[in-house]
Amino acid sequence: MHERTAIRNSALSILDDAAPPGWTLRKGRGRAVSIEECPVLELAIPNEPTQRGAQRKRREPVLTVTTYIAEGEDGDTASDDAAVWIEAALDADPTLGGVCQDATHANTEIAPYAGGETPVWEMTLTYNLRVS
Fold it and tell me: What is the pLDDT of residues 20-39, one digit of tens each?
């Protein structure tokens, strides 16, 4: 199994154990999320910088955890509430079940996407990983 696959599977398992009832968790599908599916959490590894050292290849994948929350009035607070359980779950095991050496929360972006009566808020937490 490739390291990226092991990372996605392990992080998804950790977050599935921590998710409040009603959440759908899955690997990123590369397609739009419908409002009926919300709240949704998707994991992806959109890039993986590598370096070749004298001894071995060094992998530093970037893990993104993206949530989609349908919320009419207070989506930023709903996103913050999701960040609390996501960050706590991943911070509790920075090796993500032993599949990496370290996972560091590097960035959070939150944006509302209006359309229809209820906007869907998108929040992406970015984690820099060290694999080898």
Answer: 999 999 998 777 788 888 99
- The DSSP letter of residue 48 is -
What residues have CB less than 8 Å from 13, skipping those under 6 apart? 97
β-pair partners for 104: 128
Residues 6 or more apart whose CB falls under 8 angstroms from that of 100 comprise 3, 7, 61, 129, 130, 131
Contacts of 42 (CB under 8 A, 6+ apart): 25, 26, 27, 28, 29, 33, 65, 66, 67, 68
- In this prediction, residue 54 has a pLDDT band, given cuts at 50, 70 and 90, of low
Q: What is the pTM of this model?
A: 0.90
pLDDT at residue 36, as a whole number: 86
33 φ/ψ angles, rounded to the nearest 5 degrees: -100, 130
